[in-house]
Amino acid sequence: MRAPDRLLRELRERPSTSDRATDIYIAVLAVLVFVVPLARWATLQLAPAMARDVGPVHVAIVTAALGVAAVGAGRTRGPVAPTAPYVDWVVSGPDDLARVLRPFWWRSLGGVTAVAVVAGLVVVASRDTWPDPLAAVVLAVVVLAFGLLLAVAWLAGQSRLRLSALALALLSAAAGWPLHDAWAGLGTQPRWWVMVVPVVAVVAMLSARRMVVALLPSRLRTQALRWSQVESFAITADLASAADVLRGRTRRGRGWRPTFGAPALVRRDLIGLLRSPGRAAAGIALAGLSGLLLSPAQDAPTPIIAIAAVALSYAAACYLSDGLRFSAANRSRPPVFGLTPARTALQHLVVPTVLLVVVISAAAAVGGVAASGCGLALLAVACRAASAFKGLLPIEYLTPIVTPVGEMSSLRVLFWVADAFLVCVLVGATILFQTDLWTGAGLLLLAAVLVGFWARSRWAR
After folding, report:
1. Among residues 307, 255, 250, 256, which one has the least CA distance to residue 280?
2. Rounded Cα distance, 370 and 364, in Å
3. Which residue among 61, 189, 341, 369 is buried most deeply as judged by most CB within 10 Å?
4. Which residues, 6 or more positions from 278, have their beta carbon under 8 angstroms from its beta carbon?
5. Angstrom distance (rounded) from CA 155 to CA 101
6. Strands in 336-437 per DSSP E
7. Other Cβ atoms within 10 Å of 111 Cβ, number
8. Where are the alpha helices (DSSP H) in 126-262?
9. Is the sign of the CA dihedral 108, 114, 116, 118 positive or negative?
10. Among candidates 263, 259, 380, which has minimal Cα distance to 321?
């Protein structure tokens, strides 16, 4: 054992037998309390949708989105995630980098493949008939291979190898067709050509060593320090500060001066979106995807598509409203351009509102539900404003609440952190799923107005 490893092991408290038993108990309890009910709920939601005709294009869109998300996540927090002291003492040493970082990579690889297998089991369990045993094995192998592809794409995003990341994102999209055919073969007989996915996954795994070696110790240390700050802010329910830590620095366009005819802060918000094209593109893409889901959400037998559409609209509002969030966080500072805080907030609402209404309505018009798209966009912006205007966590929310089932103050903090998101999802998804087009559009508009009054009351406090 190397000296730095030995020193870190001596500094770390060794778990006792009771500690290990407690960890096993917590893991089993978490599976029984969270994983099993969630899997059961997902099975009940997916079961009525099994009869719908889902083509390979739809599956390819989902797998492509997962591949791009994996690559993007690697730039913030990759699968190889040692702590900062380990990076300073061990990774930066003379030892082989691939051997030092191999345990972290294998641990993350096992986690990703486990999630993929659980998702595959949930989908298979949602069928109303028993699958062919051999076809089920083929599907399991393909799903496992797709999990390997996602893990390698995650590693490629962390290593900043652009060609590898692009190739893996394209391979993730191409895996949609074999996944669709492997699923379609469950009721008849296996389609053996889909086994090309495991072959591709094995080839991709062979490049993992080169990606691990490409990881710079300085970048690993930066990620470790950044993530420790995120965890510190998240523990105190300060998600806005945690998000600020995750955001990359904007270096382009420092000398840009908005001169077109519009209110001053509207011009600044537009320039801010242009200076952060990645965030702007992500917000517009999420808004477009939300609008495309509105038509199937109103015809679906379960509300899961409506929940996804509303959640995506709220996420898009978060990406496109950085000016509003910054204004709410700094309202105690001297006013900019001589505007009052209220007028400042109103001008910061213009850009996200217009963008969301235009993008979501245009995407929803493909399915003939543009009115619902407009109402959903306004509801998402109103809920985002309510979240931005609520300020800091009240100190009384940290008061312990002792119940027969344990201490519940953390649950109250969780509800306070996610109150606007929960309102948006519960109200929006219920309206979309339970009403027709014009009734739903009117109710969404009414809900947006009521949430707007709620946001105004928070601003007034």
Report:
1. 250
2. 5
3. 369
4. none
5. 12
6. 402-403, 406-407
7. 13
8. 133-159, 162-174, 176-184, 196-206, 208-213, 217-235, 239-246
9. negative
10. 380
Amino acid letter, residue 374 = C
Measured CA to CA, the distance from residue 7 to residue 90 in angstroms comes to 10
Helices 419-434 and 437-460 pack at an angle, to 10 degrees, of 160
Instruction: Please state the pTM of the whole predicted model.
Output: 0.79
406, β-bridge pairs? 403
Q: How many CB atoms lie within 10 A of CB 190?
A: 22
CA distances from 257 to 268, 348, 457 (A): 9, 18, 35
Structure tokens at 84: 């900062």
DSSP string across 150-185: HHHHHHHHHHT-HHHHHHHHHHHHHTHHHHHHHHHT
Residue-level pLDDT at 230:
82
For residue 282 the two structure tokens come to: 């992500």
Distance between CA atoms of 441 and 447, rounded to whole angstroms?
10
- Amino acid 295 reads S
What is the block-wise mean pLDDT of the chain (461 residues), using blocks of 10 residues?
A: 56 63 80 76 67 71 86 85 79 76 87 84 72 81 90 89 87 86 77 86 88 84 83 73 71 64 74 82 90 85 86 92 80 69 82 93 90 92 90 76 68 82 92 88 93 87 71
Give the whole-angstrom CA distance, residue 290 versus residue 380.
11
- Across 393-444, the runs of DSSP E, i.e. the strands, are 402-403, 406-407
* Strand duo 406-407 + 402-403: pairing: antiparallel
Q: How many angstroms separate the CA atoms of 372 and 353, rounded?
A: 15
